Amino acid sequence: MGAVLKSFAQNRKALTGLVIVAIIVALAVAAPWLTEYDPTRRVGRPHQPPSWDHWLGTTRIGQDVFARLLYGARTSLAVGFGAGLLITAVGTILGIVAGYKGGRTDEVISFFTNMVLVVPNLPLLLVLAAFIGQASPWVIALILGVTSWAWGARVTRAETLSVKQKDFVKSAEMLGEPSWRIMLFEIFPNVISIVGINFVGSVIFAVITEATLEFLGLGDPKTVSWGMMLFNAQNASALQVGAWWDILSPCFALVALGAGLSLLNFAVDEVANPRLRTGNTLSRWSLLMRQGEGRL
Amino acid sequence: MSFLFRRLGFYLAAFLAAATVNFFLPRLMPGDPIEIMFSSAGGDLSVENLEALKLTFGFVDGPLWQQYLTYLQSVFTGDLGRSIKYYPLPVTELLGRALIWTVGLMGTATLISFTLGTVLGIMAAWRRGSAFDVVFSVGAIMATSMPAMVLSLMALFFFGFELNWFPTGYAADPALDPAFSWQYVSSVVRHGILPVLTLSIVLTGGFLVTMRNNMINLLGEDYIVMARAKGLSNSRVMFWYAARNALLPTVSSLAIAMGTVLGGSLVTEVVFNYPGLGNTLYQAILARDYPVIQGQLLIMTLAMLTANFIVDISYVLLDPRLRSA
Amino acid sequence: MTVNPLLSVQNLTIDYIGAETDFRAADDVSFDIAPGEVFGLAGESGCGKSTIAYAINRLHKPPALIRRGRILFEGQDVLDLDDRALREFRWHKVAMVFQSAMNSLNPVLRVEAQFHDLLKRHRGYSKAQSRERAAEMLRLVDIPPERMRDYPHQFSGGMRQRIVIAICMALDPKLVVMDEPTTALDVVVQREILQRIDELRRSRGFSVLFITHDLGLMVQFCDRIGIMLRGNLVEQGTSDQIYHRPQHDYTKQLWASFPSLHGHPARLERASG
């Protein structure tokens, strides 16, 4: 575990990603101290370009874009991490149970997993959200959790199948350990890297999908979030009337969060899969080659 | 052959599952399901028409299973009801019209991004650790985590509104009549460039990363080392030994990626006001036109399953081990 | 020892570069192989014997680094060859049989295609010429030539390894490097393959560098043997010396791990005679 943390800390991509995400979290937490405006109130004239009073301008109904961006980050992060956790939990449990139990249990779980994988996700979410009506961020997180676990279940199952063959699992079985204990204490710690990749990937997916559902008009209008900002701006024809700040601000916020998370994901992938790692070894190799210390 | 038949059976089950969701969802909601589905119809619908609509969705007297069978019957006879907003336009017709544009958009973007992503992934894996690899694989990962709407909105703003290079909406100049004329076709192409481009960028990253990682996992295989030991040219080893084998898992991931492609194209259409399924759906959501929203799930599931089946077939063609089995 | 060795490895030192420290896989290794000779490299897995095999055809990739040494083939240092010369050298001079029989052939290409790309590259053969040559080579290893239209998965493990040997013979190489060619196969198939190689060697006159952890097998098959331990070549000698009068402690330990075989010298008839 220590070695994993160390190689993570030495990974430049991981550090960059961590810094980006940490800054966004800090901004979201510190929102009340960074802006005097209420994100839901009308605080200025409509569609004002960025100025000293309104750093990122105002929306069509005169709300402060910067304030909405800060408070909206709270929603995006909460839904992202909440739904990410839920998706990962469901996927991990189903994957480990299917992989370890095998037989009928595996067949049933795998069948459902594969089925959920081929039914298109976004259209399904749209139907669910449409019937729920104006979905609050928490409802969106919940439906993401119950519909998006399939990929995680699949990769966790595959990993479990290989861990299951290891000696320490066999010996735990010999000792008569109950299967829930084996799954929890023998299998789970050994598939943790897959779980990590699944988690970061699910957070990215949840952030994007929440924003998308809201952008498509399925969110609750009272919500302050990046997706609702995009929906409102699009509905107000912000680009057509030249109010680029209204639309580009949430765009860049989503890009920054996505970039930070994806760098983290890339790093987790490299730490988990040594074959994909490049980093320091290769640069040292190239240096030695250039110095004429050896050849190939 | 038996492999393909098994897949077909599986797809039938998946389609049935989507239809089942559609059937139960209005019934699970609190309140009167008929009220939920047809409330926005208001007074425009005559009593007979409303009855016909109810029949299509299985709202008949009788136990639940009977209602379910009635519903399945209409689904499998291709009757998805009628749009409430554009009554009496049948949902299949409304969505069918839009489908052509979406398929065109998705098909072109998938083709471009799959080719580009795969080739770049091969090159990144082959020269892994190089500046090329770092730039493209990190860039690709970032592109995949960028919401389609964000990229579309940015492209629309810069290339549509600021630079005025491309039209900012519709699939063709509305003043032109659809025809196989140079004028019309070129208008379609011009209107399609931005949506296709943004969608391709969103998708390329995923294919690149998949192909790169598959390649890297293969490069240690004995048959790759043997190919190099045989003195074959780099390009022969790279394409016919490494890439040709890495393509198999990449193609199977293409099937799963079709969901992302579809989602991306829905959103892109809304941004570019492109008359495909996504835009139709957006209008339906705003009007709470439930038969259309439900119908799109079935039509898109069908489209996904078809795409999956095409992927299955190409998989069989690519892998001799499956062909002879 | 012959005056003009076919292959002369001199002071070969190879590192695997790590982020901070390096792992020395081969340390100052020197040995010669004479024309027609069968030379064996024995040692536990990870002792560096495969590293040396890869270096002869210059198949290493980063982070492997050849620190020092020369690999002279017919007097020419392989490490000095440019890309073009190297591609001509590979397989034409030194062919290789790899460890895993299941995995050495490209699963998506027909067997004939895997002959053809080689023959086209080195001899400019047309498809028809390649097919003719492939048929000839497959007959050498008792595979019906018409099966060249099949894919690798349609053959058993032993057959696949025979196909690899047939591909090895296609350019009449001077040296065949065999990196644990039979570990993935069962004992009967293993023996059959080795006998086949030995017959071919005697009829076609190439040298063999035979790498295995199985010292018992090696003594039956090789003229001379080198014993490797953690990157070092600790002992070298004729099979007879290594078998009857091992000098180094490690060699003795290795023999001690084959009690039954060592206890019945009568069974050790050298196949190469």
UniProtKB/TrEMBL annotation, chain B:
It comes from Microvirga arsenatis. It comes from the Bacteria. Belongs to the binding-protein-dependent transport system permease family. The lineage of its organism: Bacteria, Pseudomonadati, Pseudomonadota, Alphaproteobacteria, Hyphomicrobiales. The chain crosses the membrane at residues 98-122, 134-159, 188-209, 246-267, 297-318. It is found in: Cell membrane. This is ABC transporter permease subunit. PANTHER family: OLIGOPEPTIDE TRANSPORT SYSTEM PERMEASE PROTEIN. Its main location: membrane. Residues 99-311 form the ABC transmembrane type-1 domain. InterPro entries: BPD_transp_1_N, MetI-like, MetI-like_sf. Keywords: Cell membrane, Membrane, Transmembrane, Transmembrane helix, Transport. Signal peptide: none annotated. It is a multi-pass membrane protein. Pfam families: BPD_transp_1, BPD_transp_1_N.
TrEMBL record, chain C:
This is ATP-binding cassette domain-containing protein. The keyword Translocase applies. It comes from Microvirga arsenatis. InterPro entries: AAA+_ATPase (IPR003593), ABC_Ni/Peptide_Import (IPR050388), ABC_transporter-like_ATP-bd (IPR003439), ABC_transporter-like_CS (IPR017871), Oligopep_ABC_C (IPR013563), P-loop_NTPase (IPR027417). CDD domains: ABC_NikE_OppD_transporters. Keywords: ATP-binding, Cell inner membrane, Cell membrane, Membrane, Nucleotide-binding, Translocase, Transport. The lineage of its organism: Bacteria, Pseudomonadati, Pseudomonadota, Alphaproteobacteria, Hyphomicrobiales. PANTHER family: ATPASE AAA-TYPE CORE DOMAIN-CONTAINING PROTEIN (PTHR43297:SF14), OLIGOPEPTIDE TRANSPORT ATP-BINDING PROTEIN APPD (PTHR43297). Residues 7-255 form the ABC transporter domain. It is found in: Cell inner membrane. Pfam families: ABC_tran, oligo_HPY.
